[in-house]
Every structure is written in structure tokens, then in C-alpha cells.
Design a protein that fits this description.
The protein has a five-stranded mixed β-sheet with strand order 2-1-7-5-6, with helices on one face. By secondary structure, the protein is α+β, with helices and mostly antiparallel strands. The N and C termini lie far apart (48 Å). Helices cover 11% and strands 18% of the residues. The relative contact order is 0.15.
Length: 141
């Protein structure tokens, strides 16, 4: 499969690499960190606090906060908005609290979290995600 810039006869700058958790990831100049991760086949790089569900690019335009990463020691940056630069050091690990080490494994982060494969049959939602109004809808509608 041809790269998009080949199809339009563009002549971009040479590719470079960034380091993501110590692993080199190729970048085409002008790509955001999120686009580079997605292009490298990395679809999720963090997990929710409750339930440990995987997160990565969701909106892709900076509205949500699902793609947070640390870039060159600057925490909580949205990967979809930060343009990758040669030599960037990206960390996907999140600190769990003062003095606690970063934990990458979602099960280790929340051992009481339900198994994502074991759903309760309610439209794919876990028990703790259902609305509390008893109807399973917003404002009973």
C-alpha cells in the first residue's frame, strides 16, 4: 500500500523517531503524537481509573481527554494536539499518587475491577456504569 504523501507526490521532510516508553516510534513530519502512535499500530496507551478500560484516540480534535500522555516531562498533554518533534520522549504511564509507582497494567491498578470480558448483558455496560435513575437513561427519558 502506498503512503498518502506518495499518492499526491508530496516531498515531506525525512521521517524521524520519537521514544514512547523507551520504544522507538516512526513519525512523518507534521504528525501529532497521537497520529504517530495510531500509525504505528498502537491503539490504546492508558486505562480508566475505574475498571481499567483501555483508552487512546477518541475524538482526535482535543475535546476529550482520552489520549493523555507525558511529553518531555510535561504531564497530561493531549496526544492528538501535540505535534511530534525529533527526540521527543513520550511516557504513557500515569502516577497513581504521591510516592506510589506508575502502574501500566490496568488489573494491577485496580484489582477489584470487573473483568471487561464478563459483561452483565445490559447493552455492554458494566454494573457501575448504568444510570442511577433506574431507567438506564438520562433523566428518565
Amino acid at each position: 500500500m502506498k503512503q498518502p504523501y506518495v499518492l499526491v507526490r508530496a516531498r515531506p521532510e525525512p521521517e524521524f523517531e520519537i521514544s514512547v516508553d523507551g520504544i522507538p516510534v516512526p513519525v512523518i513530519p507534521g504528525q501529532t503524537i497521537g497520529a504517530a502512535l495510531h500509525g504505528a499500530g498502537i491503539r490504546s496507551w492508558r486505562a480508566t481509573r475505574f475498571g481499567g478500560r483501555p483508552r487512546g484516540l477518541f475524538c482526535g480534535i482535543g475535546v476529550c481527554f482520552d489520549c493523555l500522555v507525558t511529553v518531555n516531562d510535561s504531564p497530561s498533554l493531549r496526544a492528538c494536539l501535540v505535534e511530534a518533534r525529533p527526540g521527543d520522549r513520550v511516557s504513557t504511564r500515569t502516577e497513581t499518587g504521591p510516592g506510589e509507582p506508575a502502574v501500566q497494567d490496568p488489573a494491577a491498578r485496580n484489582p477489584a475491577a470487573p473483568d471487561p470480558a464478563a459483561r452483565d448483558g445490559q447493552g455492554g455496560r458494566d454494573q457501575d456504569e448504568r444510570r442511577r435513575d433506574g431507567q438506564g437513561t438520562v433523566n428518565g427519558r
